[in-house]
Write a structure and sequence with these properties.
Length: about 270
């Protein structure tokens, strides 16, 4: 296992890189305007959809339930392929109404009703708090596993990695998210940082896939042959049922592109084209 000090140092370095990228993005936007690579950066930032569920939930579901894990990826793909006119209309409305959040967007469709916006904000808060807690718990658990901690369930507040991650996230949001109050201003630094995170996620998946394929096995042929020899895996895949549960998860994943506050902000509010 890894030494705790090493993981802390690497984490701090990664956080410093994110802050540096966000600072550079904001500074460049103020002096030179939006980058010509903005469409590429925006496309990468859309992968904010991939959270700890992508790394843990999807992998665990694939190991226990076969192909049903694919629903969380099929959903967004279908949304962008089939319902891009809906997204385009949402973006046009958001620009016209100077929308800054999903609650603001909902209220704008009903005369900018403040009570409706407050209710939508409350629903978003209640819905996302467990979601954010899950992300923090994933970070804390990962740190505990990598350091071979004996007890990951009874950690004191100031000894919990999740607490410090939450503090850093709050500081980052204040500096690069809520510092500007102009509804027409885009958060270039924030989008640059999210895009960089997406590159890290993509690189992690590619490196891990290559390691499993050519490090643990001698290429795809041996990997597939080993999979075919696992009777339990064969039974699991043979009994795969793409029924109501699969399509229900797919529908939820499709709606996540529209409804998750963070995803809505990146997809709709931060769109410049």
């Amino acid at each position: 296992m890894f030494h705790g000090g090493l993981l802390v140092a690497v984490s701090l370095l990664y956080i410093a890189v994110l802050f540096g990228i966000a600072w550079y993005g904001d500074r460049r936007a103020r002096t030179h305007g939006a980058s010509r690579r903005r469409p590429i950066i925006y496309s990468l930032a859309l992968a904010i959809y991939c959270t700890s569920w992508t790394f843990y939930g999807a992998v665990g579901q694939a190991a226990t339930a076969g192909w049903s894990f694919a629903s969380i990826f099929v959903g967004p793909i279908l949304t962008f392929l089939l319902f891009w006119p809906v997204l385009a209309k949402m973006i046009r409305v958001a620009k016209h109404q100077n929308v800054t959040s999903i609650a603001d967007f909902i209220a704008s469709r009903y005369g900018k009703t403040q009570s409706l916006a407050a209710f939508a904000s409350l629903v978003a808060l209640v819905g996302t708090l467990p979601y954010i807690a899950l992300q923090l718990k994933a970070v804390s658990t990962t740190f505990s596993v990598l350091t071979d901690a004996s007890d990951v369930t009874h950690t004191p507040l100031f000894g919990d990695t999740a607490f410090y991650v939450a503090v850093v996230m709050a500081i980052f949001a204040i500096l690069f998210g809520t510092r500007h109050t102009d509804a027409t201003e885009h958060h270039e630094g924030l989008i640059h940082a999210v895009a960089f995170e997406s590159l890290v996620k993509l690189l992690a998946f590619v490196v891990l896939g290559a390691f499993v394929t050519w490090g643990m096995f001698d290429g795809l042929g041996e990997l597939m042959g080993h999979a075919e020899s696992q009777l339990e895996l064969q039974r699991q895949l043979a009994n795969q049922d793409f029924g109501q549960s699969f399509w229900a998860q797919t529908l939820l994943a499709m709606l996540a592109i529209f409804c998750l506050p963070g995803q809505f902000h990146v997809t709709v509010v931060e769109n410049t084209h």
